[in-house]
Write a structure and sequence with these properties.
Elements (H helix, E strand, L loop, with lengths): L2 E4 L10 E6 L6 E2 L4 E6 L4 E5 L4 E6 L6 E2 L4 E6 L4 H8 L2 H16 L1 H6 L6 H10 L17 H9 L28 H16 L2 E9 L1 H18 L6 H14 L6 E3 L2 E3 L6 E3 L1 E3 L2 E3 L2 E2 L7 H17 L4 H4 L4 E5 L18 E5 L3 E7 L2 E15 L5 H16 L2 H5 L2
Parallel strand pairs: 12-16, 16-17
Antiparallel strand pairs: 1-8, 2-4, 2-7, 3-6, 4-5, 6-8, 9-19, 10-11, 12-15, 13-14, 17-19, 18-19
Helix pairs in contact: 4-5, 8-9, 8-11
């Protein structure tokens, strides 16, 4: 008796997926729940676990193919031996079904093992994009699993300098080439959604700046006690999330969205926080952020960041937000105009903290300042509401006691 391996059920909003990589080939022994292949959707990479232990008898879909929910991917024989199935896999019919994947693994069987169970989806994609040998990368994860950080460290490791040529350099560059690489599904989806947002919404951006002195002092005063008490570091994002929720309470139109000729208001606050990954920008959602403490926010953001790095983040983590926050300051951005994450109606942009001269009580002083940007859909949010929304966030951050007192 053989067992079929099929595409797992996809969420209702996801029509299909791309089969990115096979980690096992015909003739290989597989364990129950061992990852057989990676499926890339518009938002995340999904793993296809083996339903039973046995021998992978056939592969029905080659890497690079588009598949839908329930499609047949492979056949597992739970009773076959590795030797018998490996012999069968060498037959012409099976070789044709395995395609170019079989040729690759035949040429480098040792690399296949390093690129299999010990390589996370995010790390695997980076290895493939940079044409690295997984066997040459030391894994720091559980049971030697190679993480994205391990791959990044391998890329950053110094390489021996090439010897200088004794002949004079040519006056013009020869052999110039260009490389055409298809977009990943995530990058393609990001591009589509950004263009749709600009084409369907009347986007406008308003700016303000916040004096971070009080927030810096509060964080410096309590960060050690906070970490000891809650087991997580105190960052700036929890303050911004709490200030945003307070502003959304006062201006509910910013938490609403347009649906045809209607405006849909939310009585809950699901705040998306943008996280950069090697595959692109994703926005995991903090559910009921108004009910979360600063420690809850910091823990949730840290957990999402880790899941994004190791490729285990789910579609449920990324859907359903009512408002978003993006922090370009971590990359050094001083000011920008973020694009709304449709169908939401607004997004807050944080930026780099920089010492600047400002006038306080008639005196010129140096303060740590941050520019804030609010991009909003002008169809339903007026300029007055947008400006007051941003001022509310500014006031809460410059006097953190307001967050406790909600004044």
């Amino acid at each position: 008796m053989t067992i079929e391996v099929r595409v797992p059920p996809l969420p209702e909003s996801v029509a299909d997926a791309t089969l990115v990589t096979w980690h096992k080939q015909p003739g290989d022994a597989v364990g129950r729940d061992q990852n057989l292949a990676d499926l890339e959707t518009d938002k995340v990479v999904l793993e296809v676990p083996a339903p039973v232990a046995g021998i992978l008898k056939e592969i029905r879909v080659v890497a690079g193919s588009t598949v839908t929910s329930g499609a047949l991917l492979a056949i597992i024989d739970p009773t076959a031996t590795a030797t018998a199935t490996a012999t069968a896999a060498a037959a012409p019919a099976a070789a044709a079904k395995s395609g170019e994947v079989a040729a690759t693994t035949a040429a480098a069987p040792a690399a296949r093992g390093g690129d299999g169970a010990k390589l996370g989806p995010a790390a695997r994609r980076l290895v493939e994009e940079k044409h690295l040998d997984p066997a040459a990368i030391a894994g720091s994860g559980r049971e030697g699993r190679i993480t994205k950080q391990d791959v990044v460290r391998a890329l950053d490791a110094p390489t021996p300098a090439a010897p200088r040529a004794s002949a004079p350099a040519a006056s013009t560059r020869s052999g110039r080439t260009e490389q055409r690489v298809p977009m990943t599904r995530l990058r393609s989806r990001i591009a589509t959604r950004l263009v749709e947002a600009q084409a369907t919404q009347a986007l406008l951006t308003t700016f303000n700046e916040v004096d971070m002195k009080a927030l810096n002092e509060a964080r410096a005063r309590y960060k050690d006690r906070f970490e000891k008490t809650h087991g997580v570091r105190l960052g700036f994002m929890s303050f911004f999330v709490k200030a945003t929720v307070e502003a959304l309470r006062r201006f509910p139109i910013v938490n609403a969205y347009v649906d045809g000729a209607d405006i849909v208001y939310h009585d809950f606050y699901d705040v998306g926080v943008a996280v950069s990954t090697d595959r692109g920008l994703i926005v995991p959602v903090l559910r009921d952020a108004d009910l979360m403490s600063c420690a809850d926010v910091e823990r949730a953001i840290g957990a999402y960041a880790q899941k994004a790095r190791d490729g285990s983040i789910t579609l449920e983590d990324l859907t359903g937000g009512t408002f978003s926050i993006t922090n370009g300051g971590v990359f050094g951005s001083l000011m920008s105009t973020p694009i709304v994450n449709s169908p939401q109606s607004a997004i807050l942009g944080m930026h780099k903290i920089q010492d600047r001269p400002v006038v306080v009580d008639g005196q010129i002083v140096v303060r740590p300042m941050m520019y804030l940007a609010l991009t909003y859909d002008h169809r339903i949010i007026d300029g007055r509401e947008a400006v007051q929304f941003l001022v509310t966030i500014k006031d809460c951050l410059e006097d953190p006691a307001r967050l406790l007192l909600q004044v």
